[in-house]
């Protein structure tokens, strides 16, 4: 079988290009989502909400209202599971609807798991019925307001004790019965999914084979060069039901091509692959790559697969949010620094609203020697982030 040879440097560069993190990438907000497939949501916003940082890394000081319009007015984006809870494309609704139907359909492992979980909630069917009635009546409701005194009948009061509502809402969201239809002070506003999605939302039903074929090719084109495990961990995790069979078919068709990495130590019996459409881009990447310096959210698409990160970038990264302070190696909210095709360090940041500044708690370099020019470039990037956050000043550590 035909295969191509490459290097880890070329794989890094192609991956960065694919992630729209090069100097020449000038995408729109929607083009970022179109290329990445999903952008992860996370409630922690020590610096800014993660999805806003992901967009900032690619767009600079973008218009946040434009993102809100795409989500809630034009409804070109919505919230659902991808590799994690994410903002995804409405045009790819069938990909996500496949998962919703799995949560609904009796006999699937998703439905069985969900029902086992719900069965622990007394009267969960009655509570579900009540939630749906209230959403139909009020259109947009915060979870905390469902079943409060302004909404519920006296007979329903026992159903809301113990705060079962968020759990049942989550189940209904997984099943595609309800949708996040807006945000109020970052809290989710829920509504009936049918009322949220417009008439032109694509509705075709994918078979397991069609879904797997689409997702393998999509995931591989997002990554550039990847192993089967990395493909399955990316984009729509756990949505590759016929992976082995479909992958073999794509290989036979020549849509996927094996890659040999010349400077890679094949300790594990891993095979690497590329989409046939990306072979030319990989071969020419040293000529087309436009390097720049970026700060990355802890949940950025480029680095969210930690094993891939270590393999290609030799960069070990773990989020220490839940690590006791004394045991943290780097800090609470640490952003990796991408410079050219390497991850050269990480910066521990905190937004200080009282002093109106972006506080750089510490910067950790991967190598002992970092040139003055590179350090100045990183400071410039940090200043750009400070501006994006609407803060007046940047506070650097004394040892910088």
Poorly predicted runs of 5 or more residues:
148-162
Please tally the β strands and state the result.
Answer: 15
**Helix content, binned percent:** 25-40%
Number of helices: 16
What is the arithmetic mean of pLDDT?
Answer: 92
Task: Quote the distance from N terminus to C terminus.
Answer: 52 Å
Radius of gyration: 23 Å
Question: Which structural class matches the secondary elements?
Answer: alpha+beta
Q: Widest sheet: strand order?
A: 11-12-13-14-15
**Oligomeric state of shown chains:** single chain
Beta-strand fraction estimate: 15-25%
Tertiary shape? globular
What does the largest sheet look like? Answer: 5 strands, mixed
Organism: candidate division WWE3 bacterium
Protein name: YcaQ family DNA glycosylase
How is this structure best described in words?
The protein has helices at residues 8-18, 29-36, 50-59, 64-73, 93-104, 109-118, 124-138, 165-174, 193-196, 208-223, 228-233, 243-253, 279-283, 285-288, 306-313, 372-388, and strands spanning 4-6, 38-40, 77-81, 85-89, 141-142, 178-184, 187-192, 225-226, 256-261, 272-275, 293-295, 334-339, 342-352, 357-365, 393-395. The protein has a 5-stranded mixed beta sheet. It has 16 helices and 15 strands. Helix 7 (124-138) crosses helix 8 (165-174) and helix 10 packs across helix 12. The protein is an alpha+beta fold. Mean pLDDT is 92; it is low at 148-162. InterPro entries: AlkZ-like.
Which helices and strands appear, and what pairs or packs with what?
Blueprint: E1 4-6, H1 8-18, H2 29-36, E2 38-40, H3 50-59, H4 64-73, E3 77-81, E4 85-89, H5 93-104, H6 109-118, H7 124-138, E5 141-142, H8 165-174, E6 178-184, E7 187-192, H9 193-196, H10 208-223, E8 225-226, H11 228-233, H12 243-253, E9 256-261, E10 272-275, H13 279-283, H14 285-288, E11 293-295, H15 306-313, E12 334-339, E13 342-352, E14 357-365, H16 372-388, E15 393-395
Parallel strand pairs: 1-9, 14-15
Antiparallel strand pairs: 2-4, 3-4, 5-7, 6-7, 8-10, 9-10, 11-12, 12-13, 13-14
Helix pairs in contact: 7-8, 10-12
